[in-house]
C-alpha cells in the first residue's frame, strides 16, 4: 500500500528516495490488447500499472475521444462501413500529408458505431485476435475506468492524457484546449494533487494550460524535430540545461523519447546514460521516458532475443536500466514486463 500512497507524492514532487518509477500503461496494455480500449486498460491495471494513458483527439461535435491519431483507418474498422466510404480523404496534419478517415469528420454517435482493431497486427497477432470487440472511448469514460479501478483495488490509478494536434484542431474550428479545461473542471481534475499528468508535444498549449489549471503537465520530447507550433525550435534545444529551466516555468515533467536518456551507438547498442535525467532534476522537472516495447524491433541490440523482429526480447531488463538511470516514470505497452523489471 505504501507504493500507492507515494503516487500522489511523485506526481507533485518527484520520486522519493528508494521509490520505484511509476509505470504508465501506454494506451493500456497495448502490446496485448487493441490500444485505447477498455480491455487494454483493465489488463494494464491488473498487471500493476500506476497510470493509464489516453491519446485525445476531437469529434465534429467537439467531444474528446481516445485514439492514437485523428486518422482512424489504422485503429478501427471504419473501412468496413460503406456508409462512411465517401469520408475518406487526404489532409495535412502538422505538415504531414495523411490519407484516411478523420475523427473531426464524424460525430461521437457515428464513431461509437465503429470498433477498435490492433494497429500493429504483424507484430501483435494475438492482440489482433481481439479486433472488432471494443468501441471507441471518450475521455470521461477512461477517467471512469481509472476511478472504478481505484475503488476496486484500493490503490490510486491516475490518467495521463495526451493532447494530439491541438493547434491543428483549433485551426479547423475545434478549440481542444477549451474543451479539455472544461472536462477537467467537470471531472474535478484541475488541482495540483489531481491523479493526472497532461502531455503534449506542442509548447503553447501547455504554457496556456499552466495558467488555467494547476494540473501537472508534461512536455513530450522526440529524438528529432521540434514542436509543430514553434517553427525553428528544436527538441534538442529544449533539453539543454537552459531549455529545461525554461520548460520548468510551465511543466512539472519532461517526457523524452527513451533513446534520449539511454542513447544507442551506430550498431544499435545501449551506451551509458547521458546527463538529461540529472539536468532535468536540477531544473525541478521529473522525467518520464517513452515507449518501452517488448518486440525486438523496438529494443536495443543487446536486449534482443530470437531471430524475428516480432520476437520478444529482454524488455524487463531494459526497464531496469531506466530505473537505474534515475527516471521517475516509464511508458510501456507491456506493464507487466515493466513491473517485473523494476522489482
How far is the first residue's CA from the last residue's CA?
15 Å
Taken from the alpha-carbon principal axes, the silhouette is globular
Note the beta-strand portion: 5-15%
Q: Could you give the order of the helices and strands?
A: HEHEEEEEHHHEEHHEHEHHEHEHEH
DSSP E strands, number: 13
Helix content: 25-40%
The parts where pLDDT drops under 50 for at least 5 residues are 1-6
Largest sheet, order of strands side by side?
Answer: 7-2-1-13-12-11-10-9
Can you give the mean pLDDT? 95
Rg over CA atoms: 19 Å
Largest sheet, in brief, is: 8 strands, parallel
Q: Name the assembly state.
A: single chain
Give me the number of helical elements: 13
- Helix/strand-derived category reads alpha/beta
Characterize the structure shown.
This protein has 343 residues and is an alpha/beta fold. 31% of the residues lie in helices and 15% in strands. It contains 13 helices and 13 strands. Strands 7-2-1-13-12-11-10-9 form an eight-stranded parallel beta sheet. The chain has a three-stranded mixed beta sheet with strand order 4-3-8. The protein has a two-stranded antiparallel ribbon with strand order 5-6. Helix 8 links the parallel strand 9 and strand 10. Helix 2 runs parallel beside helix 5 and helix 12 crosses helix 13. The longest helix has 15 residues. The chain is globular and about 55 Å long.
Task: Give the arrangement of secondary structure elements.
Blueprint: H1 2-13, E1 22-25, H2 38-46, E2 51-52, E3 55-58, E4 64-66, E5 89-93, E6 96-100, H3 108-111, H4 125-128, H5 139-153, E7 158-159, E8 162-163, H6 166-171, H7 176-186, E9 198-200, H8 204-212, E10 217-221, H9 235-238, H10 241-247, E11 253-256, H11 276-282, E12 286-292, H12 315-325, E13 329-332, H13 335-342
Parallel strand pairs: 1-2, 1-13, 2-7, 3-8, 9-10, 10-11, 11-12, 12-13
Antiparallel strand pairs: 3-4, 5-6
Amino acid at each position: 500500500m505504501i507504493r500507492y500512497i507515494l503516487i500522489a507524492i511523485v506526481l507533485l514532487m518527484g520520486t522519493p528516495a528508494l521509490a520505484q518509477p511509476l509505470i504508465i500503461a501506454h494506451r493500456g496494455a497495448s502490446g496485448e490488447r487493441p490500444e485505447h480500449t477498455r480491455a487494454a486498460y483493465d489488463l494494464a491495471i491488473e498487471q500493476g500499472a500506476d497510470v493509464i494513458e489516453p491519446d485525445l483527439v476531437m469529434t465534429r461535435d467537439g467531444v474528446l475521444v481516445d485514439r492514437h491519431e485523428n486518422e482512424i483507418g489504422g485503429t478501427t474498422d471504419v473501412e468496413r462501413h460503406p456508409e462512411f466510404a465517401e469520408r475518406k480523404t487526404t489532409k495535412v496534419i502538422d505538415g504531414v500529408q495523411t490519407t484516411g478517415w478523420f475523427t473531426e469528420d464524424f460525430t461521437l454517435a457515428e464513431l461509437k458505431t465503429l470498433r477498435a482493431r490492433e494497429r500493429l497486427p504483424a507484430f501483435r497477432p494475438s492482440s489482433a485476435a481481439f479486433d472488432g470487440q471494443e468501441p471507441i472511448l471518450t475521455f470521461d469514460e477512461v477517467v471512469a475506468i481509472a476511478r472504478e479501478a481505484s475503488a476496486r483495488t484500493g490503490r490510486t490509478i491516475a490518467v495521463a492524457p495526451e493532447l494530439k494536434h491541438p493547434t491543428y484542431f483549433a485551426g479547423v474550428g475545434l478549440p481542444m484546449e477549451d474543451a479539455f479545461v472544461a472536462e477537467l473542471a467537470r471531472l474535478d481534475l484541475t488541482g495540483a494533487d489531481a491523479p493526472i499528468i497532461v502531455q503534449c508535444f506542442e509548447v503553447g498549449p501547455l504554457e496556456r494550460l499552466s495558467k488555467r489549471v494547476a494540473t501537472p503537465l508534461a512536455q513530450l520530447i522526440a529524438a528529432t524535430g521540434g514542436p509543430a507550433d514553434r517553427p525553428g525550435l528544436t527538441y534538442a534545444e529544449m533539453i539543454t540545461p537552459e531549455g529545461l529551466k525554461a520548460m520548468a516555468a510551465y511543466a512539472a515533467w519532461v517526457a523524452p523519447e527513451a533513446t534520449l536518456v539511454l542513447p544507442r551507438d551506430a550498431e544499435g547498442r545501449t551506451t551509458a546514460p547521458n546527463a538529461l535525467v540529472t539536468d532535468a532534476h536540477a531544473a525541478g522537472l521529473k522525467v518520464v521516458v517513452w515507449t518501452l516495447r517488448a518486440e525486438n524491433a523496438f529494443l536495443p541490440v543487446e536486449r534482443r532475443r530470437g531471430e524475428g523482429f516480432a520476437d520478444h526480447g529482454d524488455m524487463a531488463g531494459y526497464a531496469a536500466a531506466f530505473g537505474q538511470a534515475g527516471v521517475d516514470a516509464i511508458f510501456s505497452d507491456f506493464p507487466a514486463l515493466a513491473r517485473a523489471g523494476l522489482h
